[in-house]
Design a protein that fits this description.
The protein has about 325 residues and is mainly α. Helix content is about 60%, strand content about 0%.
């Protein structure tokens, strides 16, 4: 009896695919081995098709999910700026193209007095412009990597805090000199304009303080550069008007020296144009550094690069560059 119970126990824990033979001290119980019949080929083929279809569907769903996630990330705006790219362009061009461009001919005349002197000057203008553009882009990249919001902060997080006073002092000195130079231009210009319309009693200092207090100070107190875009556009239009007027006077030979243009007599003798034989080779003279010094600040807007980057809407590096 006990052997029968033990045999039943072995049958219970046996595998489902076949029965093994169990040997007891007195007899052997043989268990028949049963195998499952193979599925018909049509059913197996259907199962394989269904499996492949499910796998393809899952793969397609994953691809669609990845693409949707990528599109969502691309559409997601970065940063909290509100300035558009046209706003940034107008402000940047106005910051670079100022009254200083009118002095560049004097820088060329410092080393050459023949028309061919324009050739090396054009190369220098393009080369220094490319270098300045790369530096402007590099500052924005540093702000993107470090989270800096100012020129000094970018130096602090990339170079070190002990020397961060160097760019701050340099920017303060440079902008102070620029303010002084532009104040001279504004004082002379507005005094002449006011005298033309009948306000001849207004002095140079009064015109300067009036323009500074009424126009420049409110503009400087603005927190967002995007609101300056209309004024920047107006300044760009003024520079284009100046360029067109100069081109018309040149083509019309109004200041032509040999034939005596109709406006040449109004120019003081020491300011009248004169030409010689020193052309492109004059750039090898030390006096060419006068033009190089002018160009070193002609593209100067780098102290505002962090502000341009942080105020740009969706300020990714691709859009900033």
């Amino acid at each position: 009896m006990k052997y029968s119970i033990f045999s039943l126990f072995l049958l219970t824990i046996g595998g489902a695919e076949g029965f093994t033979t169990t040997t007891t001290p007195s007899f052997r119980i043989a268990r028949p081995v049963t195998t499952l019949a193979p599925l018909p080929s049509s059913i197996s083929s259907c199962q394989r098709k269904i499996s492949l279809k499910d796998a393809a569907s899952s793969s397609s769903s994953l691809c669609m999910s990845s693409e949707a996630a990528a599109e969502g990330d691309a559409e997601k705006e970065v940063g909290g700026g509100t300035a558009t790219i046209p706003n940034e362009i107008f402000n940047l061009v106005k910051g670079i193209v100022g009254a200083g461009v009118l002095s560049l001919p004097a820088g060329i005349a410092a080393y050459g007095n023949a028309p061919s002197a324009v050739i090396p000057a054009t190369i220098l203008i393009a080369l220094i412009g490319v270098i300045s553009g790369y530096g402007f882009s590099l500052i924005g990249r540093v702000c993107s990597y470090t989270g800096a919001t100012s020129y000094r902060d970018a130096w602090d997080k990339s170079v070190g805090p002990n020397s961060s006073w160097i760019p701050a002092a340099s920017c303060t000195f440079k902008t102070s000199c620029a303010i002084l130079a532009y104040s001279m231009i504004l004082a002379d210009t507005f005094q002449a304009l006011l005298t033309t319309v009948g306000f001849s009693t207004i002095t140079r200092s009064q015109s300067l303080f009036g323009v500074t207090g009424l126009f420049l100070l409110p503009l400087c107190l603005l927190k967002n550069l995007s609101s300056l875009a209309p004024f920047s556009l107006l300044g760009i239009i003024g520079m284009l008007y100046t360029a067109v007027a100069m081109a018309m006077r040149y083509l019309g030979k109004a200041y032509h020296v040999p034939t005596g243009g109709k406006f040449l007599a109004d120019v003081p003798a020491n300011l009248q144009p004169s030409f010689g034989t020193t052309g492109a080779t004059g750039v090898l003279q030390p006096s060419s550094f006068i033009l190089i010094s002018m160009l070193s600040t002609a593209y100067m807007a780098h102290f505002n690069a962090p502000k341009f980057y942080t105020e740009l809407k969706n300020n990714t590096l691709e859009r900033y560059n």
